[in-house]
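Title: Prediction job returns without error message
Component: structure pipeline
Severity: low
Priority: P3
Assignee: unassigned

Description:
Job completed but the reporter wants confirmation the result is attached to the right record. Sequence as submitted:
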Amino acid sequence: MEDHTTIRSEARPAPALRRYVSSYVGFDLRGFPAGVHCGPPGHVLTAVITLSGPLEVAAGVDDGSPVTRFSSVAGGLMCRSVAIHHDGRQQGVQVSLTPLGARAVYGMPAAELAHRLVPLDELLGALGVELVDRLRSATTWAARFAVLDELLLRAVGRGAGGDRVPRVRPEVAEAWHRLVAARGRVQVGAVAAELGWSRRYLTERFRGEVGLSPKTFARVLRFEHAHELATAHDPLPWADVATVSGYADQAHLVRDWREFTGRSPTVWRRGEVLLGTG
């Protein structure tokens, strides 16, 4: 058995931020074998601030994507996993933003960040630099989460004060909420009809705001559910993972797994050394 330790701390953002930020997670993983972790696509935009060495990330797995070093990184919605190269230790804070919160915190629609990884200070400027410095100076998870609340509230207030960021169309926000609530198991045409839009118009508006079409976003949501089941401490057999997460059969799950991780489910499980860390 590997001699490793896993520390994980979660918190909800301040009430005024919860429309825009879904969670904070602090993590300290030590003693794992060095390797490449597949950071899977999901329904939120992720920002990571490291508390130790730089984060080495590529925007694709086993596809020749260049590895870039970040002290803090923000990513948009993806259709593939990012490759996180590590030496067996990972320490940092992860912030999950809703796509609809990208305008409030970053000052731009989530679509502008789709399929991209950028330094966090490129989006937040001096506020991003202050955020990294203060998170690294804090000595407890509670103190770090308090820093996140303070500075992200300032980022939101900075945008609201100048009214510089147009609001998200309520129909797009409602479509996003419905797709997430159903974990992708809903017909896009039915959602469009309930909103009083055509499917084509919803697709154009949704892609323009979020960066993915509703159909692709629904596929990401189904994969995200399957990934949660597959990373549980007592995972289901692959056929059951496929059924529970809404795939027609295991073959469809395998197809999506290859597309979203660059690996088959079996190869992924064999190579993912950070399984069980949350």
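Comment from assignee: result matches the submitted record. Residues 141-162 form the longest helix (22 residues).
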